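Give me structure tokens for this 255-residue protein.
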Amino acid sequence: MASSNLLYELYERRLSRRLDRRRAPQHVAVMLDGNRRWARFTGTSTAHGHRKGADKITEFLTWADEAGVGRVTLWMLSTDNLSRDPGEVGDLLGIIAGTVDTLADDGRWKICLVGALDLLPSDLADRLRSAEQRNHEHATGSLDVNIAVGYGGRHEITDAVRALLKDKEGKGFQLGEVAETLTVDDIADHLYTAGQPDPDLVIRTSGEQRLSGFLLWQSVHSEFYFCETYWPDFRKVDFLRALRDYGQRERRLGR
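Here you go.
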């Protein structure tokens, strides 16, 4: 065991030394997938799997900060997740709330809630907003962290269009006028992530190779990295491999 740990540490250091920090992604979005399957594999409860996944987040953010990443988006709860067994959803919401409180009070990063909080129980939504506000009053770090809760890509775009139409209506525009003048930037300005840079790199753990609605609008020019490891077992070397892979790609950004 000691020899394998030593080999792991040597490999991790070698990976880290060989990374070109000038080519590091500035915004990394992560689909924290595989908590339930990890729990089944280890013979533990689903709630335990979600807790182990939540425990990994602070560790991951530390790695991202060290690597020079400026922004991280973490998908912690999708709109589809809300239709699961009520007992599991209740456990998961409690774990998420506790995690957001911990991240908010850490002070090393600035958190921003991303998603339709109106879909959540009102007391939980209030707790999340309170944590976000508390964080904004004392956070001093340079890493911005989006926490996607109650998030779905289609839902976000629908909300953006709805907000855009209400905004235009409030300014006296007719529907036909809006249709004639509508631009891509108009919709982007009403997304949950309005004003933020799009993700350079999207990582999904657990071996699944699909987006499942994550950042549908924002990821149009993103690079994707799919990792076989379940999120609770995600290691620093897995992250460094993703950064290495990203650094070796030629980004054309649609050109």
